[in-house]
Amino acid sequence: MREFVQEAFAYAGLDWEKHVKISERYLRPLEVDVLIADASKARTKLGWQSRIGFRDLVAIMVDADVEAGGAPTARTRQGHS
Q1: Residue-level pLDDT at 27
Q2: Is 45 a residue whose pLDDT tops 80?
Q3: Has residue 31 got a pLDDT over 80?
Q4: Whether the predicted pLDDT of 37 surpasses 70
Q5: Per-residue DSSP letter, 27
Q6: Residue 6: exposure state from Cβ atoms within 10 A (0-12, 13-18, ≥19)
Q7: Count of beta carbons in the 10 Å neighbourhood of residue 26
Q8: Looking at CB atoms within 10 Å, which of 4, 9, 49, 62 has the fewest?
Q9: pLDDT at residue 51 above 70?
Q10: In contact, 60 and 13? CB cutoff 8 Å
Q11: Distances (CA, A) of 35 to 2, 15, 32, 38, 50
């Protein structure tokens, strides 16, 4: 989650630590330090292949939230859809 928040705020040009407060009460009791996804099983068993990278996904999600709030995004200002 931290990696997503860092990437999203960086994409928006903001320092996440100035805007996000972490509440200890919402952390899992046995919080693990690192979670790394492995899509190899989906690729092997289902033939699934991701078509978009993590950073691009974050950018799409941030842009969607910005647009939903009525503000133009860098992509829409540049004429991309």
Answers
A1: 77
A2: yes
A3: no
A4: yes
A5: S
A6: middle
A7: 6
A8: 49
A9: yes
A10: no
A11: 11, 23, 7, 10, 18
Measure the N-to-C terminal CA separation of the chain; round to a whole number of Å.
Answer: 27
Tokens 């989906």 found at: 42
Section 17-28 average pLDDT: 87
Report d(CA 76, CA 55) in Å as an integer: 18
Which residues touch 24 (CB under 8 Å, ≥6 apart)? none
Exposed (0-12), middle (13-18) or buried (19+): which is 58, by Cβ within 10 Å? Answer: buried
Looking at residues 50-73, what average pLDDT do you find? 89
Question: In the block, which residue shows the tokens 């407060």?
Answer: 21
Cα(62)–Cα(55) distance, rounded to whole angstroms?
11
What is the DSSP annotation of 32-56? Answer: -S-----THHHHHHH-----S-HHH
